[in-house]
Amino acid sequence: QQQVKQSPQSLIVQKGGISIINCAYENTAFDYFPWYQQFPGKGPALLIAIRPDVSEKKEGRFTISFNKSAKQFSLHIMDSQPGDSATYFCAAVKGAQKLVFGQGTRLTINP
Amino acid sequence: DAGVIQSPRHEVTEMGQEVTLRCKPISGHNSLFWYRQTMMRGLELLIYFNNNVPIDDSGMPEDRFSAKMPNASFSTLKIQPSEPRDSAVYFCASSLSPRDRVPPEQYFGPGTRLTVT
């Protein structure tokens, strides 16, 4: 019930392309879905987040699409750049504090 | 602000030794989290504190692990005795209690890479 499944494990995209990472959850009590970005040797940092009462949220080149009925959400990175190369984690929160993370996706943007 | 501070950044120890990891949260934050990151299990929440009180320690793997938060500016995670399977990167994160309906952002430290041989 607490698991968040993320795919793919790794992803290679050409510069300028669209990167898409998918997540699925089981627990319908989750009410907040953040994405974290982690660079090598650093801790994760919040990138963008969405609540289940909206189907899409966009911030710059980053967009979250949310499908409540399917219990799925995805991160889209438009015009992917080499600087976007990092590990991305989706997460889900029930209540105020406890994050449940997906397994992570290592994204590589080829120049 | 210096962000969340963790020490040491790297720790190499032998099996059976005691290991203590330290964390200084962002000033003014009242929640603190300890996570463990491995290739096999990803990011796991071990324990979190709110106002220095442990709220949920269900992620602590076993009695060899203990965590304390004696005051709002300091926390420790102790492993005694350490085992090779404890090798991982341990992150500390802090946040401020939520306002309105938005869960608070957790700010992660740089992590401590622990190797137990």
Biggest sheet details of chain A: 6 strands, mixed
Rg of chain A (C-alpha, Å): 13 Å
Report, as a whole number of angstroms, the end-to-end distance of chain B.
Answer: 36 Å
What is the H/E string of chain B? EEEEEEEEEEE
| Helical run tally of chain A | 0
Overall shape of chain B? globular
Low-confidence stretches of chain B: none
N-C termini distance of chain A:
40 Å
Which residues of chain A sit in consecutive blocks of at least 5 with pLDDT less than 50?
none
| SSE-based structural type of chain A | mainly beta
Estimate what percentage of residues of chain B fall within beta strands: over 45%
**Oligomerization status of the protein chains:** heterodimer
What is the number of helices of chain B? Answer: 0
Tell me the β content of chain A. Answer: over 45%
Order of helices and strands of chain A: EEEEEEEEEEE
Q: Portion of residues in helices of chain B?
A: under 10%
Sum up the overall morphology of chain A in one term. globular
Q: What is the count of β-strands of chain B?
A: 11
- Average pLDDT of chain A, rounded to a whole number, is 93
